[in-house]
Amino acid sequence: MREVLPAQEGVAPPLRRRQVVAVVPAYNEEATVARVLERLYPLVDRIVAVDDGSTDATRQRLLAWAGDRDGVHLLLFDRNRGLSAAYRAAFELLARLRRKGELDDGDIVLTVDADGQHDPCDVERLVAEMEQGGYDAVIACRDLSGYSPLKRLGNWLLSLWASLWAGRRLRDVESGLRAFRLGALLACLPYYRGWRYSETVELAVVLCRLGYRLSDAVAVAVPVRRSRTSIRDGLVDFLAIPFAWWRAWTGGTRPRGLPLRLSYLLPLPFLLGLLFLLFDLLWHPLFLGDDSVHHYAHIWYVGHYLAEHRSLPLHIPYLEGGRAMAFPYGLPVYVLGGLLNLALGDRAVGLMMDLALAGVLGAAALLRPALRQPWPLCLVLLNPFLVDAVYAFQLTTLWCALFFLLWAWAVESRRKLVAVPLLWLAVAAHPVVSIPAVAAYGVYAWLRRKGSLPALAQSVALAAPALVPVLWMTLHTPALSETSLGTVAASVADSLSRRLTIVALPIALGDAWPWLRQRYLPVFGAGLTVLGIGVALATGPVQVQPGVGSYYGALHGERHLYDDFMASDAFRPGAVYRVLEPNEREDGMYRLIQHEAVLAHEFFSESVGRRNWRSAAEYRCYLAGKGVEYVVVEGEFQRQFHTNEASLLEGMVAAGDASVAYRDPGGRFVVYDVSRLSGPAPAEQGCRG
Length: 689
What we know:
By secondary structure, the chain is of the alpha/beta class. The protein contains 30 helices and 17 strands.
């Protein structure tokens, strides 16, 4: 590339309050380029013309026209590099002129095509729009009525696509007639690459994503109707737009001390990991997680009950001998999931999980705008308890977090009427998580956001009466009455210490982001270490509690272990079953109740009662009290929990008090018939209540 300097080399033009520079790229425009430049010259202070390796007489026309004119810069390419390369070369020249003090950030840069399709007189309208509106950039909106329907449709679709990534409506993203503040233009240079014609679409997206004010309200006619772009160029632009967004989103907001190229790469594993999570949850029709089958069962039953009775159930007849509450929590979640289940089947539950996870991140960014940047968002995703909530399939917890964050946003933005239903939804989704979260947020608001206290108090006062039925159902869950208060308290404390971080961390990170941004790399390293330790504890390499964790469902689907048994004569619909499956692999229970088996327990660990029994008599009394007719014991359950239940059952078989009703041909599980124990009342067998 050769650069031809203005005639008065080494003498800067007189400084002005504001200069206007026109950039005119040209490729094989011998018929029009001189005329366009001639009309443009009186309207601007400088012209940068670029010959993009023309094969006709365009270069000769440029050299002849430039002559000894002041303020003209010619850039001459030896070969055709494309429109984007021509613009970049011109903009880099402007950057050098700014460094030398010949231009200022407030100066205006115009881009005008050399083919005559832009009326040079329109540049004054662009400058006026910029000055009057205080804009950083103005993109002319062309009248394309003279072009083919295919061209107009392509422009509309590309502009719509760019609008989605830019975060605002762009009417004509391919327009080459534009005006920029020099400072804004040069700030965008590191974040777009440009290939062939993609410079226009990329630069529009980058400007918006870097927060510059842009107008495209100036409509212009197109006196010369011509286009060199093809469908291939449109596809290139289509692909270039999200990459431009990524570079602006990551590089434009990078923390202190982070190199630009590294800033493009560092958030990529988080994006790919998040996409994998969302895809993984949808891939498996039945996702196996610590809490997943509980949610699948409730959503399945609520949906089918709604379809049949057009009302909500109070109990589920297939759980806890028919005493289980349909909504121990999760009322809004199970109702919505049940309706989706009627159309999508079990995949509706995975979709609900996806919506909850995406919703939590979106609500966090709404509540704390700093989280719209990738860097604090990466810290949110480093929370091992958030990852655990996904793979443990804590569906109602995530929906509770989503509603809670939206409620906090409504409280802080003084949307009192919106805050009330959001608070009800949060508590109804999970009272055990939301009530402490609301109390903790109240303390936080009193310390840091006292202006939010009236809206907070009003929402609590108005939502509380409507929450009474919800809390009544939670408190009447059979698992609570069957478990000691100390055990319940310990379980709640353990759960809250992890789950509350899902709502507390986004708020804390948003508040502390200015401080964290200056110390990001060590904070990020610490977060990565915590995530690694958390995943190791949860997935098995370091296990602190037998049967807890492994994330089995991340890579495995449903096992279909009981299909042959349910198709055999040994299976009895309506009978009461105690089913002992390994943690995170409780799909058998779900399929059994779908075939009208009744479980003697719920899906809560406290209800299943995986434990060692002190004596055979105690175990017999337990079975009799629960009315258990069959006990199903999987080999994997024994290997995971090492309880004495299987040996007790074998002893009962040997004593003639039980029998083997079914033995899996693959040796994976055994079904014991203990129905003779459920006949006499527990008291008659020497059992005490």
